[in-house]
Structure formats: C-alpha cells, structure tokens
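Support request, please re-run this one:
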Amino acid sequence: MSATSYPLHTALSLATSGVPVLPLRRGKVPFGNCHQCAGNACGGRPNMKTPGPCRCPGVCHAWAAATTAPAVLASPAWTAAWRRAVTVAYHPGGAGLTVVDLDDAAAVAWAREALPATRTVETTRGEHWLYRGTMSSHNAVRPGVDIKSSMSYARWLGPGTGTMAALPDAVRALAVKEPSPARPVPQVLPVPARSRGGGCPHRTPAYLARGIAMAEQRITEARSAVHATVYRTFLAVLSTHGRCGCLTDAHIARLFTAAQAKGETARHCADAWTNARTTLGL
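Re-run finished. Output below.
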C-alpha cells in the first residue's frame, strides 16, 4: 500500500507513530493558504517560516499544517484535500529528524564518502539520508544537496533501510556557509567593546536583565520582517549596553538563540550583530 495510492491511510498510520504529516497536491507542493490567510493576511511570511496565529480548519501554512491529530487529518476540510492529494509529506523537525536530500547520483556518491552511514530512503533520482536530531533547514548546501529538518517538509517515500544514526557534526557543518571574500570572517559570539572606565553605569543588574528579556520577547513575537527586527533589536541593545562592558557572551547567546528560533542562521545573527556594532562605531 503506497503513500501515493492511499495518502490518508498512510498519513493516519504515520501520525499514530508520532510523525506530523500533511498532504501534497500535484507538483508535490503543499496546498495554498485558506481564504482568511490568503496573501498572509493573518501575519505569516511568504516563505511560510513564521505562520500567522490563525486557527485554520483546513490545510494551511505549508509545513506548519503538519499534524499528528487523527481528528484533524480525517476532518471534512482535510478529507477534501486528501482526495486531491498525490502523496504524503511530513515535518522532519517535528518528528525529531533531519533529512539530507541527495538529488542525484553524484550527491549520493559524495555522501557515501563524506557522511556517516544511516537509514536511507530511495527517491526518484537519489536518496534521503535520515538522522536522529534536528537543525535548521537549508537548501543547496552543496550541489544536489538540501537539508530538511525544522520548518520544512519532506515527501514520505517509505521507512527506508538501515540503522538510523545520530545527527553528525558533518551535516550541521553543511549549513555554515563560507563568508564572502569581501567580508571579514564573522564571529558567532563577538565580544562587545569595553568602556574605557571599565565600570557599568547602570544602577542595578536588573536593568540589564530586563533589557535582554525585552529584546528576546521582541524577536520572539516578530510576525514579519524577522531579519529587520533582529537587526533593530541588536542595535537597540548595543546602543544601551554596548559601551559599558556589562554584556557577556551569555547575554549575546540568548539573543542569538531567540533569533535562530525564528529561522535566522548563526551567520545571519553574527552579521546583524557586526553591522549593528559598526553602525554604532563600537
């Protein structure tokens, strides 16, 4: 019984095992947003990475629609979508997995040399390599290679063969892009400039703690323009605390973590931090 022939049956079976699923229509793409969310009126971004706060009864917001709830999967709105579906997709990150999507024979040959062996699933032209663990998703990390994990979807093509290995550093490293030759190498957690006096002018540590908490909240609540929000937030934090020497790596890591939870990469965070420091002359 294949996923293509019986998509709803396959979806319910996967959901029972804890794999969040969604239907794919012709072209192997998700169904479009519902009427209330058309044009991202609910606050979602065009790339679906930050879906809006809607409570859609149907299939909506691409990967974010993936669910393990049988009642939702078999609801009237979803049943109508399953009738038109050509196959089943799942959210790897929601299942605690990372899929290395190898699009052709050359990519498969590279993986066999460069990556630890793990469970593999045959695709039309290549293979999916499945690892336990999650990370951010990235396309075209090298020729013919995509990474699908959090905030992404992958086609369900069967359970695969082989023993699944833990997500290795070699896969995580694929997401770290080489910097442009015109730029200096960004530091993930650069230490801010210290003030000449060496002392913090703020009256209590609570002032800094409150500022960092508010900055985290501002990033977390961003519904659109996340790149711009992260930069403006970094700029605000540095304009207040960047010269007094009270910021620590732990504070900066909290801001980076909040930004990466919204889909930003470590490199984007480092670039935004560096640009904010440059703007302020730090």
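Confidence is low (pLDDT under 50) at residues 1-5, 179-198. DSSP finds nine helices and ten strands in the chain.
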